[in-house]
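quick one, 340 residues, struct below
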Amino acid sequence: MDDGLIVGKGMYTWIIERCGEPADLVHQAKVGGCSHLLIKLADGVYPYYGRNYASPSQRDFTMELVDAAKHEGIEPVAWQYVYGISPIVEADVIVQRMNSAGLKKLIVNAEVEYKAPGMGSKAVQYCQRLRSKMSDIRLGLSTYRYPTYHRKFPWSEFGQFMEGYLPQVYWQGAHNPVEQLGRCLREYAGLPYPNKPVYPTGAAYKQGSWKPGPGEVTAFMSAAKTVYELAAVDFWEWYNATVYVPYCWAEIAAFDYGVTPPPSPPPPSDGFMMRILVDDLRVRDAPNASAQIKGQLHMGDVIEVGDIGGANAWAKIKVGPYAGYWSAVNYLGTRYMEPV
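---
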């Protein structure tokens, strides 16, 4: 019986800065029916901020994405790649990040490093430390799809602490996602701790000359939902799916997995509320049309206004992911928002 670690369909996210503004990513995910986003908060012993490599930015894109997801009713779930060199430090780092983000669910991404001799004890140290630092943490394991190919991996040591498995069912180099999903589920049923829910991660990316064929992502989701009755599926990875294989994202967005994020209610407030009347209304860092663009609002969004300023009427957003920034109420005779 599924314990509800995750439900519905979701996407892994990685380097957030290259995806644009976190709030826009979340809006697109919500329109596409995603119930959750898996957000990398740590890489080994280091906090992870979702920046481009060598980026001069000091923004914590991952925390911005967490906040934006919460605001839109999409569940943010933390993930961490673990190396096992310093398992206690790795555990401490991710717990600190999760506490800052207000998250309780962690997907542990363990791969080749944990196939080395003696890594079973490191897996136990890491998981015990997580439990000691956050007693109500909920854990899932993201790793290889076929345990029989990776017998040196510490399946038992990790499995005893997990509440679910997220096998990486990447059919890279082939075009048989349904067959690979079936084999994965059969092999996971033979693990030392088999009676745990499985939430498979599918392939929505391009690698070299390979990419999923049209309809393969849909077939993967359909088998997961209707044949195997799995509570959730995920895909690697947001940027790849939306930029390099956009037809894969279109298939993900079009598929009804049975869980849709609820509409965003207006934030509770005694302040002045405005509803957006147009799509792609720009948010800027000052009340003028030449100020830096920080993101976009969308038709139907409701914002709380903290101030009105500018030569035309500009609203200063009071709460949410764009708090402190400005957007036009009307400009050059065109009205962009109205009182709620």
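DSSP finds nine helices and 16 strands in the chain.
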